[in-house]
Amino acid sequence: MRRGLGQIETLLFAYVQLRGLPAVRAGELTEPLQLSKIQERKLLSRLAKAGLIVRVWRGLYLIPPKLPLGGKWSPDEILALNTLMADRKGRYQICGPNAFNRYGFDEQVPARVYAYNNRLSGERTIGSVALTLIKVADDRLGSTEEVETAEGLKAVYSSRVRTLVDAVYDWSRFNSLPRAYQWIRDDLATKRVKAAELVSVTLRYGDKGTIRRMGAFLEREGVAGPLLKKLERALQPSTSLIPWIPTRPKRGTVNRRWGVVLNERA
Question: Distance from first CA to last CA of the chain, Å, rounded?
């Protein structure tokens, strides 16, 4: 056992490791360890401050399968995220920069985990895991794929096509335009995604701005008319204009069909 652990700490780790418990809740240790609620609370708080266990949420702690040798322990990203979402009875999908890296759109490995979910919003740290939680409506979750990690955990990612659509939809959060246009162009050329998939996912998860930008993009790429009509039918007639690249001045050729100012050279 780790040097400096007292009898109660030793009993806690022996108990949870014998039963293979990855996490414990406040109240679960009072009976088996014969502790009062106050003793249990102090014990968990003391171990969390020492970095031997990690607090996930109020009264919920992750426990390492083995004690770290001479240092603090932290769960991996998926264990932390899965435990938090399971506790909140929520759904999530890893998105944005993490998905960009997973699918090879961006070589940069994010320092945080970005996740759409239907329970929590804001930044949170679990051990050394930094999370950016983006709360969305239930109907904005979907178009996902499940990945099994080396540790046997299930991670839920936005699908490749959903990731491309979100790079247009959530451009301000992910700083993904105009890069996303080239990602989509490359994936269409290599047939990693199909135009019909882009249209379907755009209509389901995009907003009006996403539909207009995607319509203008696909029209420029020579996509078949019937697919463009599907996007067009989702829009109301409007004289307002939006920029093709939102971070640049709204100056350039105007595509009236989609109400988009093609300002790539502005």
Answer: 65
